[in-house]
Amino acid sequence: MTAKVSTPLQLVREFKLASCLLVAAAAFAASASAQTVINYAAPDADTYTAATSSSDQNYGTSSSLKIRYYTSGRYRNRSYVRFDLFSGGNEGSFTGQTITDASVTFRYASDDSEYPGTTVNVYGVNPDFQGGDGLLGQDWGEEALTADNAPWPGSTGALPDYITLVGSFFLPGSGVSQGDPFSITGEPLVSFLNDSLESGQADPNLVTFILFQDSSYTGGALKMLSKESGLGNSSMSVTVIPEPGTYGLIFAAFSIGLVLVRRRK
Predict the structure, then answer these.
(1) pTM of the entire structure?
(2) pLDDT tens across 2-19, in order?
(3) Which residues pair with 210 in a beta bridge?
């Protein structure tokens, strides 16, 4: 039986095809393991608001973030914590990527003596909210935010339609020490962060979280550490992988190569 000998032109084609298949396979292998974790050691800004008779007062330099629900709106405190997804030169890290996992951690400071423990809800300000009508948008200043101009005004009890619940944690009334971490994670948080990436925000890409006690609670206030405390602060971690479209292109290139190989047999 005479062996089939490829012509020089066929050899060139076969070499190019083999190269394409190797590149596609290598790209797929790299993408499959290209999971990146991005950590944010501190927030871009944090403060709290107080719906008191001095609702125009700012607490941006405070060492703690006060949180309190009260049946009378006058005593309500909401804490604001903001991160910049693109800080530290991370803008390029999100190109062609999607967030698959995330966590945001807050650190306990102290509480009132009558504090019995409660659920703390964490809300996200939707990325398309840019303020207006006297309210500040995502770029609120740490030393400018007050109960009067905050995205969720102190005088407003109902949840605005541009603010979304993204997680919650339970903080017990005893056995908690200063600096203890309390975190949120899960699909609502991941979805919220991906919405921010898709919102078209240029650098910076800001995400604002609001901490507020569950409405069933009417006791004393609790406090979380702010970045001004020097004792600890909020932090965030996100995990990203290539978007599904990236995998699709790699699979397409690999499949075309296989088809061509089979046609040559």
Answers:
(1) 0.81
(2) 555 556 665 556 556 555
(3) 80, 123
